[in-house]
UniProtKB/TrEMBL annotation:
Mg(2+) binds at residues 183, 207. Its cofactor is Mg(2+). Signal peptide: none annotated. This is Phosphoenolpyruvate-protein phosphotransferase. Belongs to the PEP-utilizing enzyme family. Residues 5-291 form the PEP-utilising enzyme C-terminal domain. Its EC number is 2.7.3.9. Phosphoenolpyruvate binds at residues 48, 84, 206-207, 217. Keywords: Cytoplasm, Kinase, Magnesium, Metal-binding, Phosphotransferase system, Pyruvate, Sugar transport, Transferase, Transport. One of its GO terms (biological process) is phosphoenolpyruvate-dependent sugar phosphotransferase system. The lineage of its organism: Bacteria, Bacillati, Actinomycetota, Actinomycetes, Bifidobacteriales. It is found in: Cytoplasm. Its main location: cytoplasm. GO terms for cellular component: cytoplasm.
Amino acid sequence: HQRLLQELKGKPTQTSKGQRIKLYANIGRPSDVDDVLANDAEGIGLFRSEFLYLDSQDYPTEEFQFNAYREVAQRMEGKNVVIRTLDIGADKQVGYFGLEHEANPALGYRAIRICLTRPEIFKVQLRAILRASAFGNISIMLPMITSVNEVHDAKAIIEAVKAQLRSEHVDFDERIKVGIMIETPASVIMAPELAREVDFFSIGTNDLTQYTLACDRQNPNLSRFADPHSPAVLRMIAMTAKAAHDAGIWCGICGELGADRELTQTFVDDGIDELSVTPSSVLPVREIVREH
Ligand code: PEP
Ligand code: MG
């Protein structure tokens, strides 16, 4: 079987009827690009940028981040690299942020909520991402969105950073795409409105399952109740894809469910445009799509 999988390298991720799926990979660090290339992923659908923060003793500088993002973009040679902005808090804690202890961290001060209240941190990251966008095909993805207002606020900060770079005559991709993660029930319900504001959706099934089923994703005692194939979650995925397509944008999945081969057929039938999976799952998922 390993040999059969190897033969899928370079082959399109396409059903027998010709429906094409973009098959991307998830990474946390620039060095993960080795695995992405070795497994023939067609892009990077989720660069969990918080690892650059988790690996540091203090706030990573613009230059440090710029080098990391540029390296990934260059090595991907024009293939799409979706960089998720800082998703710290909850299950990902960093000491130097000085975050207060919370009784319910998953429902607390995390991700885009930190970025919108501490724009000085967000802007450093956005400058690094935008500067790196001159060296490849980078997209920006915002995590933990629950409302249209948050998207407006984040986009206003992105525009301010772009204006600053222009005034400094620093190159960046003027047409850089901005998308959001759909990983809260609120964002599924508001998907038709959100889709008019952004260039793409990527469904974070890890958090979407946690918030939809009210089951802490880190509590192993809840596995009986946290059914990843829950019809509630699957219906939300279909609703999200439909809202995206009605507005003319693409919709992917970057949570772990995206690599679940038992669901690949469902996702293809939902019209999911992109699956971003751990690098070792790329060829197994390509195999199952081609058998569809
Ligand atoms: C998700 O929530 O499904 C996701 C992809 O993001 P993370 O696992 O990093 O929270
Ligand atoms: Mg998440």
